[in-house]
Design a protein that fits this description.
This protein is an alpha/beta fold. Helices cover 50% and strands 13% of the residues. It has two domains: 129 residues, 3-Layer(aba) Sandwich (Rossmann fold), CATH 3.40.50; 111 residues, Arc Repressor Mutant, subunit A (Orthogonal Bundle), CATH 1.10.10. Strand 6 and strand 7 form a beta hairpin. The radius of gyration is 18 Å and the shape is globular.
């Protein structure tokens, strides 16, 4: 059985040890590496190429969020989970903005941590469940998408830096397709889709897929069939609802 590879970045060696013990008790998850939260952490993670990275938020300076932003931008195929000693609405909002797909209290029991890892492996975004439980945060996230949308309309249409294939893939993403579904549609491998997504984010300097779609729609690079394509975000599935996908 191929195990889910997890890497943890946390200054607390006892916490790292606890995670390692928890994962050792299940057959499908492996802690492949660990590091302290410092300037070398990003390079250390890159050496291991894990599927999931769990990052301490880094109180009080929130250095972990900076690391999460860097990882989601440069390695979007990695699922980032932000760990926090206490939960806070503003902290959660900043975590969503960082591109992380998981947000978890460090007081969580081993079963909850393992369950989150498995959900991410299956393509889910557990952070959306947390956002749904906090309407105030959900409203802020939605408003940000709408503000980006309005800003995009005011900008002059620019020539796209994306290739025809990248635009085709981004069009599917805008309709709510996941990487595996896009790969099936285009008869190419899922890894090739991930490589294209990485290229798209780099070219557009976008933090995540959603921001890339917003930019592409409002520069006119991909079609938009609704005035505000992100007004009906389904946080539970992370799919973007448009007229084309309903």
């Amino acid at each position: 059985m191929e195990k889910i590879q997890v890497f943890v970045v946390d200054n607390n060696s006892l916490f790292r040890k606890g995670l390692k013990q928890a994962f050792a008790e299940v057959e499908d998850i492996e802690l492949v590496g660990e590091a302290a939260l410092d300037s070398k952490a990003l390079d250390t993670v890159a050496d291991f190429s894990p599927e999931i990275v769990m990052v301490d938020i880094g109180m009080p300076l929130l250095a972990g969020l900076d690391l999460a932003r860097q990882m989601t931008r440069h390695s979007p195929a990695i699922g980032v989970v932000v760990l926090t000693p206490y939960e806070d609405d503003e902290q959660l909002f900043q975590t969503v903005k960082s591109g992380a797909i998981g947000y978890l209290s460090k007081e969580a029991i081993a079963e909850d941590i393992i369950a989150m890892v498995r959900k991410i492996h299956l393509g889910e975004r557990p952070i959306n469940e947390v956002v749904l439980e906090r309407p105030h945060v959900a409203e802020k996230v939605l408003k940000q998408f709408q503000d980006i949308s309005l800003m995009g309309r005011a900008m002059e249409t620019l020539a796209t830096p994306l290739t025809p294939r990248e635009l085709e893939i981004l069009s599917y993403v805008a309709q709510g397709y996941m990487n595996k579904q896009v790969a099936y549609k285009l008869s190419i491998s899922e890894q090739t889709i991930k490589n294209h997504i990485t290229s798209i984010l780099r070219k557009l300097d976008a933090n995540d897929r959603t921001q890339a779609v917003v930019m592409a729609m409002h520069y006119g690079w991909i079609p938009s069939r609704v005035e505000r394509p992100f007004q009906n975000i389904d946080f539970k599935t992370a799919h973007i609802r448009t007229e084309a996908s309903e």
